[in-house]
Every structure is written in C-alpha cells, then in structure tokens.
C-alpha cells in the first residue's frame, strides 16, 4: 500500500491544518513541496489542479477542505449524528470566512495603490477579528471541542486559525478564555504534542513570500 502524500508549498498556509489532522490520526504520510508546479499541474491527473493536493492510493484530491473531509471520514471525525455533521459543515464554512478576512488583509488589499500595512492590520484586529472570535467563543461555550465530545476535523482548522492570529497579536484571545483554553488543549493532545516536538515539525512562514506580511520566517 502506498504512503499518502500531501503536496504543498513549504509554508503553513492552507496546508498546516491538513498536516495536523494527519498527525492526530497517526497517518504516515509524505510532506512534499512541488518544484515545478506551474509546468506540471495539468499533467498530474487532477480534476481541478491546485495546491494543496493529496494523493492516497487511487484518490487524488485538491481543495483543502475536501482533503480534510476525506481524511476525517476514514477516522469517523465528521460528527456522530446528523446534527453534528451539519455543525461540522457550518463551522468549516465559518472558518473559511475567517480565512478570507486574513487573505484580504495579507494578500489582496496590498495590491491597492494606497495600501497601508499598519492601517490594514489595525482595522483587522479592531473591527474584523474580534467579531469572529466572539461568535466562535459563544458557539464553543464550555465544551472542550467544537463539535460533540471528541475531536472532529474542524478542530485543527480552528486551532490553526487561532494560532496564526496569535502570531499576529499575542493578546487577541485575552477576552476569549475558552478559545485560549481550546488552543492550549489542542496543542496538549499527545499526537500533536509529539508532532510539535519532532523533526517533522518545523518553523514555517505562515503566508507565501508574495504576502504583505508573515511571508518570511524572520517575521515570526
């Protein structure tokens, strides 16, 4: 049986939550960084060529959330009831909204002629992020995990979002103690703790080098 392979840039970006889920489930995998993506992407047999992409035997998938659900279904991590599965879908979509806010700040808006990095960061931290964090906090409530009583695939997605925002502002969770506790609880999971202490885990830039910020390791 072939070893599953994740293909993505050597950054956190849209690949890190996939790595976290693979590590949590104990899946042995190869973490590969394409060297000639532009030249090869239409030759790989992918339906919708994009990065990240994931090869698991005969399965070839693009789109990070499709990859997450594929892995999660193998390990019964998509919720145990119809309600929980619906909630997984909802939280996943909400996380994508958060990722869009991040992407506009770091990638899209800096293409404008009047782009002001400090202003963009300030507006994001003041006007956008707290609103989303409040909603997440209220949804989580006193539970340990976002859906049901055990880890689902949306937990590494949310963890990674909280983690990158803590890099941007290490006080962003000060008013959301349950989110900080969730973040710390996820890191304390034995498979995650072991991964973060291993040579498989390395300090990566959060964004690609074309981003306005956090695209270089020295910025972290």
TrEMBL record:
<dbReference type="InterPro" id="IPR040079">
    <property type="entry name" value="Glutathione_S-Trfase"/>
</dbReference>
<dbReference type="Pfam" id="PF02798">
    <property type="entry name" value="GST_N"/>
</dbReference>
<dbReference type="GO" id="GO:0004364">
    <property type="term" value="F:glutathione transferase activity"/>
</dbReference>
<keyword id="KW-0808">Transferase</keyword>
<dbReference type="Pfam" id="PF14497">
    <property type="entry name" value="GST_C_3"/>
</dbReference>
<dbReference type="InterPro" id="IPR010987">
    <property type="entry name" value="Glutathione-S-Trfase_C-like"/>
</dbReference>
<comment type="similarity">
    <text>Belongs to the GST superfamily. Mu family.</text>
</comment>
<comment type="function">
    <text>Conjugation of reduced glutathione to a wide number of exogenous and endogenous hydrophobic electrophiles.</text>
</comment>
<feature type="domain" description="GST N-terminal">
    <location>
        <begin position="2"/>
        <end position="79"/>
    </location>
</feature>
<dbReference type="InterPro" id="IPR036282">
    <property type="entry name" value="Glutathione-S-Trfase_C_sf"/>
</dbReference>
<protein>
    <recommendedName>
        <fullName>glutathione transferase</fullName>
        <ecNumber>2.5.1.18</ecNumber>
    </recommendedName>
</protein>
<dbReference type="InterPro" id="IPR036249">
    <property type="entry name" value="Thioredoxin-like_sf"/>
</dbReference>
<dbReference type="GO" id="GO:0006749">
    <property type="term" value="P:glutathione metabolic process"/>
</dbReference>
<dbReference type="InterPro" id="IPR004045">
    <property type="entry name" value="Glutathione_S-Trfase_N"/>
</dbReference>
<dbReference type="InterPro" id="IPR004046">
    <property type="entry name" value="GST_C"/>
</dbReference>
<feature type="domain" description="GST C-terminal">
    <location>
        <begin position="81"/>
        <end position="210"/>
    </location>
</feature>
<dbReference type="InterPro" id="IPR050213">
    <property type="entry name" value="GST_superfamily"/>
</dbReference>
